[in-house]
Structures are given as C-alpha cells and as structure tokens.
Amino acid sequence: MRPLGDADAPAILDVINDAAEAYRGVIPDDCCPEPYMPAAELAAEMREMRFLGWNEGVLAGVMASQRVGDATLIRHAYVRPDRQDRGIGSALLERLLRDAAPGPVLVGTWAAARWAIRFYERRGFVLRADGDALLRRYWHIPDRQRKLSVVLALERAVPTPPARER
Known about the structure:
Elements: E1 2-4, H1 9-19, H2 39-48, E2 50-55, E3 59-68, E4 71-79, H3 88-99, E5 105-110, H4 114-121, E6 125-127, H5 131-138, H6 143-147, E7 149-154
C-alpha cells in the first residue's frame, strides 16, 4: 500500500474505469459515460483528496479520502475486477479510517450498487435516511447523480444537517 500522486494518474484511471464497468446496466446509461472517469476529472479530484493504492505488480486498487468541513469522505474506492474479493478494498479502507481526522466518516455511492453498499455495511457503515441533505452538504455532484445516490456513515458523531439542507 502506498500514497498515490500525479505520476500514478494513468494507472489510477485504468483501475477506476476498469472497475466501473460493473455499473453498466445497473445505473442509467446517462450516468455511466465512457470513460467513466476522464483524465481531467481525475486531475481535479487529485488536487482535493488523498489517494492510496494497492500494488500487486500493477496497481490493483485505489481509494481516496477527502476532508470536507467536519467530515472525512471516502471517495473513489475501486479494485480491478480480477483482484476483487482478496481484501484489497478492506485494507485500503482500514488504512484511510485509521488516518481519518476525528468526526464523521461518510461514503456516497449509487443506490443501485448493492455490492458497494454491502461492502460498507459489513464494515460498520449504516445507510443514512438524510442522505440527500448530506450529499448536498459534502459533495459537489450533479443533481441526477445525487438523486440516484445514497450515503453511508461510520457512526462516530455524524452531524445532523441544518434544517435548510434537509
């Protein structure tokens, strides 16, 4: 496991776009472009968050964390399909959680990505009923994506969004 930087961007894109193929036919086509993550979007995201990677000869998995206000967001959690179910995602998440600042830890994902929701639930995260308000408060995503997404939280003092954001 190691921190990832700008030089790793092509490999990060390979992992994300390879793993994101699982969304095809699960989320609406207009939310699943080709490539799923373009290089310019990743470059912008890398300026805002800390990426970790898992190497097995090639980059096999990536996951990022981003501090937004009082919360740590888990972002861009992807493992190459041929390397899944080997503990890579769990190891990356464990490391990011260990390094997270005090306060809530949140993850947003597609509501239809049941496998992702189960992954986080097995690790102590719970679905939040106020997911829409949390997505508005902590993420900058298109309305369409927000409406099709959920938020899970590791219950360690997760704030209730102010009434105006609900």
